[in-house]
Structures are given as structure tokens and as C-alpha cells.
Queue: 3 jobs
Job 1
Amino acid sequence: MITRKSKREVEMMQEAGKLLIKTHKEIAKMIRPGITTLEIDTFVEKFLASHGATPEQKGFSGYPYAICASINDEICHGFPRDEKLSDGDIVTIDMVVNLNGGLADSAWTYTVGNVDQVGRRLMDVTKKALYKGIEKAQAGSRIGDIGHAIQTYAEGEGFSVVRDFTGHGIGPTIHEEPHIPHFGLPNKGARLKEGMVVTIEPMINEGTWNSKMDSNNWTARTVDGGRSAQYEHTIVITKDGPLLITDQGEER
């Protein structure tokens, strides 16, 4: 069932979003060759606790960490680990913050040291694809409008759009209806209504869009070893257009 949030619920999610933004900005300062994603995971859990919040995905369906940390060819749900990040890697940090029952969800891909031109272009196209999808997140539009905008842009730039994982509604739990595919046809799917809160989180690959699952049954990676990037915002559908509650204030 698709739910629409009250003003109070949106305000709670906005407060969680503010903390999530702070957390990502602290992570950005940490990313460098030699750090491990397990160190980042430990930092995030302590940082959230110091602000009275918890990492919502820890324990969700048995997931054991505060963040997902997906490196290079890992599409999503990468486990934090002791392996040091290397110069030239790209790494996506995805997390859900629970602050007093309000949830906010955001993923961000970071460069580790000197990333090659193709990797940087992949990241740039993925971020632009996110915002092209957000532009279509208007009350009265349909879910397919979002996916179509993302797919046509990303594929037009020579990249592929992951099909196996989607955005979603959020609050009061991590994954709510509706699913938000990052591909599809315009004027198809459920209609967006004021008060809905969703995530848009395109995962864009260098090569084919197909994925395979690691033995941990969580981590998805590309079948051809190509790199994958992801950017995600939590968005409130309002009568005045999409309201980003995880906006870091970056240039678009």
C-alpha cells in the first residue's frame, strides 16, 4: 500500500535528512587511499549515536553493518571490510538514518585519489541522471516518467541502467511501496501524489546492466567487471515540486 505522509512525519524525516547530510560530509573528508570501508562503518555508527540516531539498515533482514560500501564493480549492498581503498577506486556509501523515528536514505559515490576520466564521467552522468529523474517527480506525474528520464539520458551517454534494484517509498520502514525503477516508459505506472516520500537512486554501469550476487547473498556486482556508480536522494512529493530532504547543496 502506498502511504502519504503527514506534515509532522515529513518534518521528522527532514531532521533525519539533515543528520544524514552531515554524515556524508564527514565521510567525504575521510575518503582517501589507505582507509578501509570498515573504518568508515565504525565512524558512521559512532557519529549517529552521538547525535541520538541509529543506522536503520543495520539488522534489516539480517544486514550486519551501519552502511553499505560498494567498490568499483560492486553495484550495491557491498559489505564494509578491512581491505584498504586504493588510488583510482570509486566507492559508493549508502545509508539510512533513523532519528526519533524519522528516516532518510542517501547514497553517494566518491572518488578515491586519482580516478581516470571514464570513471569520473560515469559518476557525472549518474549524478545528472538522478537529477533528471527528480525533475519528473511531480505531483500528478507517473513513476514511469522518472525512469524514462533517467534511462534515456544515461543510455544516450553510452552507459547502462541497472534493472534489478530500484528506488522505493520510505517511512515508517526502509522499503515501502511504490517501487521506483530507473528505466521504463513515460505515462506508465502509479501516479505520484502530494505527501508521498520516495527515493530515487539510479545505479549506472560502464558496461552491461546485468548483475550477479556474491556468496554473502547481499552484494550485487556487474557481470562484466565494469564499474558502477550510484547517487540517491530522499524526496517528498509536494504541490510545489519535489522537495529533497537529503540535498547536500552541491552544484548540479
Note: The radius of gyration is 17 Å.
Job 2
Amino acid sequence: MKKASGNAIGVNYKMESFWHKNKVPYLFLLPTVLYLIIFQLYPLLESLRLSFTNLSLLIPGSGKFVWLDNYKKLLVQDKDFWNILFNTFFWVIASTVLQYLLSIPAALVLNQKLKLRPLWRGLTMVPWVTPTVIMGLIWKWMYDGDYGLINYYLNTHISWLGSEWTVWPSLLLSSTWKGLPYAIIMVLAGLQGIPGSLYEAAYIDGSSDFQAFRKITMPMLKPVLMVSVMISIVMTWTKFEMIWVLTAGGPGVKTSILPTYIYTKAFQYFDFGEGSAVAVLAMIMMMIFIMIYVKAVKKIGGDDI
């Protein structure tokens, strides 16, 4: 008994000593932890719970547990769900690829000794800091079939957002414009971390600019690219506002993605059960996509991710 009491006293003393030494850092962390619990964890758990119910604001007495019925309806009976899932993957992959294909040459230019270089770097961030809704409204006006600037300068009358042949290129152009600054800044940060001595040694050995880019720049950029691309994938997956402002998922469901489908189900049809089921499936699909991406990156040598 005395030994057990001694152990308990020792544990209590260690806990009090630990709290006394670390209470200030933990108190600083407390607001962030509370925010995550209230505004992240609780909505996530509530969405999971609602996905097993038939809650609809238009049906009195709804809200009963139906377990997997919502998921069965989406995966088996909903003829639009799989098309929307394909749209989501297309939107994420195409947007991210375009952003980074353009960001690398842009960052290489901004990394040179240019006149007014800080100004050009600052102007690059304008699309990034502009609210997405405002940016979407600007692009929507530019794409207008009657009064848009694009048709005015091209002397055409194309309904850019109303035709199934032009709507996706238009959306991808807007998305690339919005997300490109982030990609440029990340690549530029990676470029500035490459020692200049590596290039000097390469040029002494007779390497051309292209050889130096292929043998030094790209391998050294790989860790930055792998992580920043993953972040861009997550941000693009949840980029609801751009598509909603420009097309609201139309024409029909031609440009609808999972986030817009969640909004349509929950806040237009007021079917919170099915809307929550779509949200849970979207989260699962994104996690699977990210795991596949991480596995593929590690296979090609990106061990820093």
C-alpha cells in the first residue's frame, strides 16, 4: 500500500511540475484548440451524423436514422453523382497542372535581376489577395455574351459560360488566374533556396542553361513542388465560390463539382441528409486522392513530403 501511495504521489508531482513548466504555452494554444473543436471537429461529426438521417426542412417529422440509405441512393440511383465526381477530379487535376506549368517559368523570370522587381512580385499577388467572389464576378462580366470584354475585343458573340464546349476552358482560365500567384510564390521561394555555387560549378563544367535547369533547378525544387502541389489540390478541391459565381454548376450539371452539389442539396433543396452524405463522400474521395498522390510522389523519389 505504501509503495502504491508513493507511486501515486510521484505521478501527481510530475503532472503538477509538467503543468507548472508548460502552462503558458498550453494557454496560448487553447484558443486555437477551441476554435478547431467548435468550428472544425463539431461540424465534421455533425455532418457524419446527419448523413445517416433523412433530415429535410421540407418534410415534417424527418430526421430519422436511415443509416446507409443516403449513400446507396447517391452511389446507385443518382445518375448525376458519378458525372459530378468525374468533374471534380477533372477540375482539380487540370487546374493544378495549369497553375504549376505556368508558375515555373513565371518564377524563373521573377527570380532574375529585373528593374522594379519588387513591384512585379507585388502585382503578381493581386489575384491571390482579391476575394474569390469578386474575382468571379469580374470574370463573369468579361465572359458575358453581349457586353463582355472578351467578345468585344475578339469581335464575337460567344456565350462562353453557356456553351458546353467553352465553359470548362473558361472556368479553368479563371481558376488558373486565381491560384497562379500561390504557385509562383512557392516556386520562387524554392528557387531562392538553391545555392548559386551549384550553377557556377555547372557552367564551369560546360553546362547550358537548359542542362542546369534540368539537372539542378528541377531536382532542387522537387520537395517544394511536391508539398505545394498537395496544398493546391486541397484548396482547389474545396474551391466552391469560383464555379458557383460563374456557372452555379450549369449548364445543367455540366460544371457541377462535389462542393457545389453539397450546396445544391443542402441549401437549395434543403435535404440535409443527402447533402451531408455528399460531404462525407467528398471528404473520403479527397483523402483517397491525396493518399494516392503521396504514394506516387514517394515512388518517384519525393521522400520529403
Note: The chain is about 75% helix and 0% strand.
Job 3
Amino acid sequence: MVKVRLREIRNDLGWRLRRYRARRARAQSKAIFIGITGSSGKSTATSLLGHILAGHGTVHTQVLANTLKALVRTLYKRMKRAGEVDYVVFEAGAFEPGSIRPMAEMLKPDLAVVTMVRLEHFAQFRSLEAVAQEKKALVEALSPGGLAILNADDPHVLGMASDVRGRVATFGQSETADYRVTDVHAAYPDRLTFSLRWNAGEIDVQTPFPGEHFWLPAVAAIVTALELGVPPEEVVAKTASFEPLANRCKVEAIDGGPQFIIDAAKAPWHSLNIAFEMVAKARAVRKRIVLGQISDYAGSSRKYRTAYGVARDIADEVIYTGDNAHRSRASQADRDSGRFLELRTPKDASDHIKQTAVPGELILLKSSANLHLERIALAWTHDVKCWIPACGKSEGCYTCGLYEVPFEEHKSFVANRRIERRKRRYERLLGGLGFRRRS
């Protein structure tokens, strides 16, 4: 008991020390700090903005890992290693009430960007107003004279303008937006294009995204870059060369095989129709939708039934997988004809697609991250051996990188890899000191 208590005290003191060092690093840094939040689009906006700014200065981008611990690590450890930078772009995620404010107060952003407010983490927030209140903490923490970049089309976001101590720039399709978006078009294989107009100019933008809904995070990043003084022509060029994030509608086209749109990072109910609409507008010889876990909805699991009704009108085949695969309420006629398939595991879904694929067909993989449906696409280019239905890891398979190793061997594989790395570092150290390893 005493040892446990001492360990707790040590861990608490260590965390306090890291936070102190992080605050000191923030106070001493001359970088421009940018915080980005929102119910959807923040990861893409953060990553794209970092990509654009990289051609205009030195940048540290913290994306996906969007917690207070990640921010502390960024400020006191990673920035120290990288040296002074011109820009720090940080994605701030909300997991429960009060989760953003500590990050915002430590970050003290010079620019705060809010993409949208939707009902996310339903069990914790319960209402749009509660989500908006949480996101607003980033805007309220702006440094004196800072800039808030807000979505003019979302009243919950636009309402945050009254709490800004500095300047506000709005973007959206609304005629009142400072940066107005028009001519939005995407119909895969045609990638997203749009025009952006503001008082000082106009640009036509080509992006690598397969769906129209990506205009919002793209414009959020572009407007921020323009406000920071990046030339419009440089913004256009960098946006066109951006590589979308894994599992966020990244396209994986297999030579002689299917084309996958991998949207397997999250599947909140409020955004499901957006993914389906993207498939509906696409052009392909055949369309299939693989649906896994839906999240963030109120009421019963009838949402799976509703989703199937929409999906079957869009796709030639709909595959439900995961623990809720039985909730589609698909008719017996749809099951008998193959219009609907209930395959409980990602491995079953992968095997079926491998056996029935048609060259050039389009397959949407849509689910919350727990099922790791990206493995279905990976199996076409890699020898995937990790097929556990739900591994418990929050990171995607592309980041984990262990999909070619059976799940039960992950721990030993990582341990052996760590030992090998230490051996190589030790040998390099000895080599630098003039010693040679005996054969």
C-alpha cells in the first residue's frame, strides 16, 4: 500500500513538473500558436494548415493526439528538440465537459479556429449547447489582440464571436461571411474544387478530397494561412499537393481491383449522411458500402435500420459488420438477393470482398475506429495477419503498423523491436568512441 501511494505521489509530482515546463516553454517561445477545434474537420484542417505553412516557415503540427498530455509533451519536449519554430498548430479535442479549457489556457492561442458544432460524445455532453460551450473555451483563451476564425454557416460557432477579445474572421457559404465559398463540386473520381472570395482577392482551389463536405476543413485551413500572410498562389499550390489523412476519406485505388474510400476513424450519427452522399454522387461501375459501428446518437439502435434504408438506395451491396450487424432490419428479399450481407467480423467482410471484387468498383469503409475497417483495404496490398475484431487500440492500423503481425504477438514483437533499437544505439555509441564489437 505504501509503495502504491509513493508511486502515485511520484507520478503526480512528475506531471506537475511537466506542466510547469510546458507553460514556461510556451511563455518563452516566439512562435505563432494556432489552436483548432470543432466536432468534425479539425484533424484535416490542422494537418492541411501545417502542410501549407511548412512552405512559409518552420512548423510543428500536433494532430490526432489532441489531449492535454499531448499538448504538454509538444511544448516541453518536442519543441525543445526541434528548436524554435515559426508556427505551432495544435488540434484540441473535447472528450468531456472541461477538457478543452486546460489546453486552451496553456496554449494561449494567437489564432483560434472553430470548424463546426455537432452532438459528439453524446453521453458526456447531451446537447449542442453543451458542445458549443466546450469549444468556446478555445476562443475565450485567445491571447490579447488574437484572431478567431469562425464558421459563419454554423450559428453555434458564429455565436462565439461575442466572446472574442481580438479580431474575428468568418468563412462559409453564407453571403455575410468574410471569406465566401462558392462553386463547391466533388463527384469521385472528380476531386473537390471550389472558389473562395474575400475583399482582397479570389482563388480557385483544387484539392485531393473525394467529397464535397471537405470544403469546410479545407477553407478553415486556407483562411488561416491567408490571414497569416501566406500568398494566395502558394496556398493554392500547397492545398493541391496535400496528402489526406489516413482513415479520413483517404482513397486507396488498387491496380486492377476496387477503389476504397477509407473513412474508418469515426462514424458519428450526425455525419453518416455526408459519407453516404459522397458515394451517391460518385461515378463507378459498382458501389458498395461496408458499415461498422455508429456512434454519438440518442435513443435506440434503430439508427442502424435507418442507415440501411439510406445506404441500400445508394449502393449495389451493403455489408454490415461488427456487433451491431444484425440491427439493419434488412428484408429477407434483400438478404436472398445479396443486396444486404451480415458479416460479423472485418475478416469475413474482407474475404467476401476479395472473392467478389470488380475492377474499378467503389467501396466505402465507414465505421468508428474500434473495428479498424482499414484492414479490408490493407489486405489488398499487405499480408494482414492481425484480424482480431476489436483490438482496443485507439490508433489506426496505418499508425500502429503491426497489421502484418498476429495480435497475440504484438507485445513480444514490440518488446523485441525495442531491444534491437537499444542494441543499435549502443553499438553506434561504442563506434563513436572508437570501440568495435567483437565478432
Note: The CA atoms of residues 217 and 389 lie 31 Å apart.
